[in-house]
Design the sequence.
């Protein structure tokens, strides 16, 4: 870490500890973009793990910051609703200027259960067996095309490329247009004026293009007598979703795009950042490539590609000595749960040899647990197996540019150099 | 102690003495029997300790809670004798239990 980064971290710590506890507001995108939210969470975990913040740009909200408390909220879907009509699953959901989109992650049982089960076969063990060799071939081609000794953006050339290809396959989306999927995925979660889109009008225009493109794919497939195995055909041919409102179809498309793209993409980038910041771990991985699978899980914990999930209380509820009121917004900070020193030993260390690397909260728990978790791990596993065959080192050539978001914890850009091939 | 046989999807068998009070999941994980992930650590919150109960023991087990029912509902390869092994507390009565594990835990 360079001096400027260290100074920034120290300032953030001073700021986080100087505030009166009731004024502490960690839900500021700028803190995530500058990677300086850590001391806020550290203080919350220690001093008030279930914390109410009365004022923020997202309105009042509760923060849940400890691992086991997050698990308790996540598994209590009877009290803590995901319903999009109540605000859905992000801290920004339910604001007056945002029209909520129905999607199954933002629904409660029974409808959630029905829709989730329709798309689950796409990530079944059998389908992953089919996808594995396809992903491997693509990963190999991507890596073989990278320049040697010249800086390039890893996010653009590798992370986006691989995950966009996988997503195109899942949707059976026109392969040559696959980068549209990554673009739309970025636009959906972007705040206008912070890099991805300049204005709300531009965002709306791109969302309209996104929607009408997917309506076209639905129309193409809904009347085929032999439905394909892609996600759109699954929705278009299942009696439970065949007649859903176009809005609800689009909501589910958005969910599958963001879920199937942003998260894995940012964890692929995160793996390069983590290994560069921890060269001893990179050495260990080179010496013992069999550690790739635990490195993958450790990176998913360390990165936490979705920093939070939000719920809304549907009745008053006593929790850890606090009274959460009906209608209150409750934010489970996965990014903090994954650094909970009571559950994870030396949680700030990046350690690819943890005894139980899969003990992390990045996928969530309970009925909304990430449906694509094994596909995410598979893509990371494969890209690293193929990297290790080819390159001794992917070297960071500058600090990463992080996303301006309290939800998507990711990277817009990461310049790297590959000094040499094996 | 109860003797429990864990059978991997490949057919490989592991017979382990599990102390009473542990869960069937713990019996596997703490004895390094592969095939059970138990990502949530035994909270009935992830369905990665899915097993299929063999040899007539199903009736000796406590009924599923709503949460176990729900989590199993989302797991692949579920059969009528599927259970989440973190929810099965080992008692003397379970001596001789056999469980099969699925190809992978999702």
Sequence:
């Amino acid at each position: 870490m360079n001096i400027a980064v260290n100074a920034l971290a120290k300032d953030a710590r001073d700021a986080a500890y100087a505030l009166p506890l009731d004024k502490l507001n960690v839900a500021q995108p700028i803190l995530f973009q500058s990677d300086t939210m850590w001391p806020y969470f550290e203080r919350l975990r220690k001093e008030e793990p279930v914390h109410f913040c009365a004022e923020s740009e997202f309105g009042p909200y509760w923060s849940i910051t400890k691992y086991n408390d997050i698990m308790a909220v996540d598994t209590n879907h009877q009290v803590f609703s995901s319903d999009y009509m109540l605000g859905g699953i992000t801290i920004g959901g339910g604001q007056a200027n945002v029209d909520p989109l129905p999607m199954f992650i933002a629904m409660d049982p029974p409808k959630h259960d029905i829709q989730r089960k329709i798309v689950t076969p796409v990530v079944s063990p059998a389908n992953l067996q089919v996808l594995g060799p396809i992903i491997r071939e693509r990963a190999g081609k991507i890596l073989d095309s990278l320049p040697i000794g010249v800086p390039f953006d890893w996010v653009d050339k590798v992370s986006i490329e691989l995950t966009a290809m996988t997503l195109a396959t899942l949707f059976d989306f026109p392969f040559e247009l696959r980068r549209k999927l990554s673009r739309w995925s970025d636009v959906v979660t972007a705040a206008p004026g912070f890099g991805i889109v300049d204005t709300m009008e531009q965002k709306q225009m791109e969302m309209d293009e996104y929607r009408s493109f997917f309506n076209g794919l639905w129309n193409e497939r809904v009347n085929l007598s032999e439905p394909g195995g892609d996600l759109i055909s699954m929705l278009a041919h299942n009696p439970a979703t065949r007649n859903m409102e176009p809005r609800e179809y689009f909501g589910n498309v958005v969910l599958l795009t963001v879920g199937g793209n942003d998260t894995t993409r940012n964890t692929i980038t995160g793996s390069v950042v983590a290994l560069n910041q921890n060269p001893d771990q990179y050495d260990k991985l080179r010496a013992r490539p069999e550690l790739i699978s635990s490195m993958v899980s450790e990176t998913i914990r360390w990165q936490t590609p979705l920093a939070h999930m939000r719920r809304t209380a549907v009745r008053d509820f006593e929790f850890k000595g606090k009274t959460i009121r009906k209608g209150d917004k409750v934010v489970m900070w996965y990014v903090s749960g994954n650094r909970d020193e009571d559950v994870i030993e030396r949680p700030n260390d990046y350690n690819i040899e943890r005894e139980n690397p899969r003990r992390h909260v990045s996928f969530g728990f309970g009925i909304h647990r990430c449906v694509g978790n094994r596909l995410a791990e598979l893509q990371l596993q494969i890209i690293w197996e193929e990297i290790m065959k080819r390159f001794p080192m992917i070297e960071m050539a500058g600090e990463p540019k992080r996303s301006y978001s309290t939800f998507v914890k990711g990277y817009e850009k990461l310049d790297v150099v590959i000094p040499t091939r094996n | 102690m109860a003797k429990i046989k864990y059978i991997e999807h490949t057919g490989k068998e592991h017979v382990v003495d599990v102390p009473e009070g542990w869960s069937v999941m713990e019996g596997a994980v703490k004895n390094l029997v592969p095939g059970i992930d138990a990502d949530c650590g035994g909270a009935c919150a992830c369905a990665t300790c899915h097993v299929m109960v063999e040899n007539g023991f199903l009736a000796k087990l406590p009924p599923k809670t709503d949460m176990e029912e729900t989590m199993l509902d989302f797991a692949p390869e579920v059969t009528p004798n599927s259970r989440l092994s973190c929810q099965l507390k080992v008692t003397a009565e379970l001596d001789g239990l056999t469980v099969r594990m699925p190809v992978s835990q999702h």
